[in-house]
Amino acid sequence: MRIMLVTSMVPDAGGVGAIPKLLAAQLRGLRERGHDVTLVTSFGEDPGQAEAAAELLASDLDAHILDRRRSPSARRRWRVRGELAATWATKPWPWRVVCGAAGLQPLLDRAAASGEFDVVAVEDNPVAVLRFPAGVPVVLTEHEAIRAPASQLGPARLSERPLRALRARDWKRWDGFLPSLWERFDLLQVFCEADAAEVRRAAPPLAPRVRVDPYGMILPAATDPAREQPGTVLFAGTFAHLPNRDAARWLATEIMPAVRARHPGARLRIVGSAPPSEILGLAGDGIEVIADAPSMEPHLEAAAVVVAPVRSGGGMRMKVLEAMARRKAVVTTDLGAEGFAGLEPKLPLVLANDAAGIAAGIAGLLERDGERRELGRQAREFAQRHHSPAAWAARLEAVYSETRVAAAPAPRDALAHSSRKDFPR
After folding, report:
1. Is the pLDDT of residue 317 over 90?
2. Which of 152, 329, 376, 413 is most exposed by smallest CB count within 10 Å?
3. According to the model, what pLDDT value does residue 415 have?
4. Which element (helix H / strand E) includes 363?
5. How far is the C-alpha of 167 from the C-alpha of 163, rounded, in Å?
6. Contacts of 156 (CB under 8 A, 6+ apart)
7. 64 pairs with which residues across the strands?
């Protein structure tokens, strides 16, 4: 197939957060299976993005990449901010979508003029508002259909309250935005059954278009068990993602005290990008908060147990998959295991859904070295079977092939040139 891949971030196996990693696996897997891929994407200020973009542009990939780094000109920066603010004020789009779509349409149009495509694969909703080639089937991968409540923004200091109120207002926009967006696509791909159920609930007529396809990653090297630091419990996450903030607070304030009561030497390491004040404030006796670490590798090497006590949100659980792929024992909730359930009868994870159960799972693994390391071995093998680039690309290929023969929800020219004023022309 000739595939146009439109992404919200540059594919990067070593990137910050989950999305660049899964996109790197997607791109590699599809190309290794012989598909001709044209990439349309952008990059900004996150560490490694510029280098990843340069590497792609220097390869034989047909890549169209927008440089979104801040201009050295203060005048230009303020002009861009004004344009983005005007878009937010005049369209019902969340801020993340306003920023994600800005400037990409001319690049996409040039890529579309390069030839005929069998399918357009759109990765994540910030780029889903763009206009796509007429007459070509389009599949959207919705990375997170379940939105965490705005209450998970956390408590705000007095000086932070005006901005927090604005963010809460922006967060509410997703409720009406997503169902109207999803209507534009032939098929909707999600990573777990919980997100599929949310699409069906929010937009019942779209239920026949939903497909569940667990994601993949370029598997990192397994860690050396001899390099574990005894008693170290790791939580990792991007704190722009609200469920990660809730999970970190729950872990630090309720779960770890119970772990330390049974295992006094246990200590928690919270590692993630852009931790807000309420997460930084969790640091204290037995708890370390590390902001914007240049690499997760040393922290995963040191961890005896990785924990992901997520209790809200949907989408991918890349922190769980990455720990499994690195041969780590993982304790998580049923929600944290979404995307893995159904692949095999028994998952190589310790599952619990309340603070006492999670604490018992963590403490038990800290106390039993053999059980912990065997669970890590099984987790690594599970990741190799189901989440390698090759395994994921095979599933993607099936979805894309189905999209090519699926009945379009509207004539393709109407989809590509939407009469809705909400979408760019």
Report:
1. no
2. 413
3. 34
4. helix 355-367
5. 6
6. 164
7. 40
For the entire predicted model, the pTM comes to 0.82
Using CA atoms, how far apart are residues 138 and 42, in angstroms rounded to an integer?
A: 20
Q: What angle do CA 254, 339, 150 make, to 5 degrees?
A: 50
State how far the Cα of 384 lies from the Cα of 419, in Å rounded to an integer.
45
Q: Are 317 and 341 in contact (CB under 8 A)?
A: no
CA dihedral (67, 70, 71, 76) positive or negative: positive
CA distance between the termini of the chain: 27
Pair 342, 404: CB distance under 8 Å: no
**Cα 418 to Cα 423: distance, rounded to the nearest angstrom:** 7
Flag whether pLDDT at 406 surpasses 70.
Answer: no
3-state secondary structure of 252: helix
Structural element, H or E, at residue 242: helix 242-250
In this prediction, residue 314 has a pLDDT band, given cuts at 50, 70 and 90, of low
How far is Cα 196 from Cα 423, in angstroms, rounded to an integer?
24
**Contact call for residues 304 and 223 (beta carbons, < 8 A):** no
More confident residue, 344 or 51: 51
Show the CA angle centred on residue 341, arms to residues 337 and 346, nearest 5°.
Answer: 100
Dihedral pair phi/psi, residue 261, rounded to 5°:
-65, -35
What is the spatial distance between Cα 308 and Cα 285, in angstroms, rounded to a whole number? 21
What is the spatial distance between Cα 133 and Cα 168, in angstroms, rounded to a whole number? 35
What pLDDT band is residue 417 in, cutting at 50, 70 and 90?
Answer: very low
Q: How far apart are CA 43 and CA 423, in angstroms?
A: 22
Which residue(s) pair with 235 in the sheet?
A: 270
Count Cβ atoms within 10 A of the Cβ of residue 370 and give its class: 0-12 exposed, 13-18 middle, 19 or more buried: exposed
In the chain, the amino acid numbered 41 is: T
Catalogue all structural domains in the chain, each as residue range(s) with its CATH number.
Answer: 2-217+389-416 (3.40.50.2000), 225-386 (3.40.50.2000)
Compute the mean pLDDT over every residue in the chain, rounded to the nearest whole number: 87
C-alpha–C-alpha distance, residues 344 and 240, integer Å? 32
